[in-house]
Amino acid sequence: MKNNIKRGKVTMAVAIAIACFALVLVMSMQFKIVNQTDITAIENMRETELRTELANWKAKYEETDAKYQETMAKIEEYKQTQQSNEKAEKLVDTELEQVNMALGKTEVEGEGIEIVIKETEGEDFREIKADNLLVIVNELKQAGAEAISINEERIINMSDIVTIRSNFIKVNGQRILAPYTIKAIGNQTYLESALLGNGSHVDELKKLGHDITINKINKLKILKYDDEIKIKYME
């Protein structure tokens, strides 16, 4: 699409150049006619012939002026078309950027929170499962999180968070290990409140003895989703 827009710009530039050249050529021809006129012959003309000649000059002037106005109108039209194409190009770029952000294909930065989950150790050791992380991710989404990652793996609508053979977790097909760091960009107050409310999943994990800390960060960076987005069933 960008290549088509660029070709359109080149075409408009060539058209404007041709129109301007035609205008200059017409005006130069008219000036040549005036310069070649024999002043002595004019003085010797009869009144009727002089009026006729003046009428011809007037007609030629009006014709030249009409062509000038037509050319200027075309140039203005070309300018408007170019501005319209530039506006369309900017709109396409903006929409493409928004789509990439929604798909997680763009690295983003903004205010948010960082949750660090450390598993309990000792006799009462309890492993964190994929379901635990998934519940937290859903709570963050409901609180308005605009971007989320787990151990730098960007979470998109098609991300998988699963426990493999009951002893390790995979996110987006990549194995991740404790401690688990969940990042979320959004309103810090809303995000924190969603996780710390009485009866929340974080609250339950803390009661089980897991060490969980939540930090507010004003410039939190979340990496883009690096894998290919594969569609299996939609056409």
Can you put this structure into words, describing what you see?
- With 235 residues, this protein is α+β, with helices and mostly antiparallel strands.
- It is 54% helix and 20% strand.
- It contains 6 helices and 8 strands, in the order αααβαββββββααβ.
- It has helices spanning 2-35, 39-44, 47-103, 130-142, 188-196, 201-207, and strands at 108-118, 147-150, 153-155, 161-164, 168-171, 174-176, 180-185, 211-222.
- It has a 5-stranded antiparallel beta sheet with strand order 3-2-7-1-8. The chain has a 3-stranded antiparallel beta sheet with strand order 4-5-6, with helices on one face.
- β2 and β3 form a beta hairpin.
- α1 packs antiparallel against α3 (47-103).
What structural keywords apply?
five-stranded antiparallel beta sheet, single chain, three-stranded antiparallel beta sheet
- Uncertain runs: 31-36
| CA-based gyration radius | 36 Å
Most strands sheet: 5 strands, antiparallel
| Overall pLDDT | 78
Percent helix: 40-55%
* Shape call: rod-shaped
Record the strand order, biggest sheet.
3-2-7-1-8
Strand/helix succession: HHHEHEEEEEEHHE
First-to-last CA distance: 22 Å
Question: What is the count of β-strands?
Answer: 8
Strand content: 15-25%
Tally of helical segments? 6
Structural class: alpha+beta
